[in-house]
Amino acid sequence: HEAAYSLENWHEILDQIQNIATTKTRLSIPLLYGIDAIHGMNYTTDATLFPQSIAMAATWNADLVKKSAEVTAIEMKASGIPWNFNPVLGAGRQPLWSRLWETYGEDAYLASVMGHAYVKGIEGEDNTIGAPTKGAACIKHYLGYSMPLTGKDRTPAYIPERMLREHFLPIFKAGVDAGAHTVMINSSEINGVPVHGSHY
Length: 200
Known about the structure:
The protein is α/β, with parallel strands linked by helices. The chain has helices at 7-23, 53-58, 62-78, 108-123, 161-177; strands spanning 34-35, 83-84, 136-142, 182-185, 189-190, 193-194. Strand 5 (189-190) and strand 6 form a beta hairpin.
């Protein structure tokens, strides 16, 4: 996206996409459209924008994080989009990483609390993502994506298993425990093994 769209623009675009998918393809399977609404519904004009996740974590206020996710879900659904590629639950432990601001920081406990709150805000307490003001969360990027050795995005991570278990896994467990409907995988590798191809 180069710019934010109005609600009307979103509805027109999504209607066109669904029309093509359901009438001009062999299987007529509707599309599930998702978006990176990572600090509010930033691709919709006049939507509410919030501080980035690292700044929200600095408040230590999980209720505020949950409320921001509730507002995001309302504005996301109003745009016609049911799926949010957020929250980023990677541990922010690599200060060179260009996307550090998307995380809830380096502390596994704080990031777990904030991630759990965000998922509940987007999906609702009972995770009814089909509700008019709720949507699906996508916890990302499982696993180790936030700690690339060089700091460059989408490059290999080298993380000892003990560190993975102590600092990285608990945050994702919190997102799963909150009932997040989807998970986005790390598109790179950990310790020389592409995550997409790692049975372990």
